[in-house]
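Task card 7
Instruction: Convert sequence to structure tokens.
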Amino acid sequence: MSDPYILSNPALAPAIDELVTSSLAGNEVLEQAIQDRIAELGQTYETLTITADAILVSSTRAVLIDAAAGDITATLPALLDGDVFDIKRLDATANAVTIATPGAETIDGAVTLLIPSQYLSFTLLCDGTSWYLI
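Output:
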């Protein structure tokens, strides 16, 4: 099993690149797949904390929702194949937290998704036509 520290440590990137390149000379497809995975492991995501209604943007991956001050609706962006959102509720209030679509799109067949309790989280994936819980 790979050590995530080694694969995500920027100081080791040149050595890893050299090792991958010399070990896989002539196999461009495999080399590219490994380079893509290394880049993915070291990738960071924009995090957004919302405390009021908001429209999410594709550049945000992690969304933390704090509805302590009142009900919140977080609206997903227009459909874009490959978009992924990790959404988590932080507060323990009775206020409603709703994830909505911007139009007729659905989330696993529903127009909205409710997050009823503290620390409950969902990952949503878009395939270009709908949103899915994964």
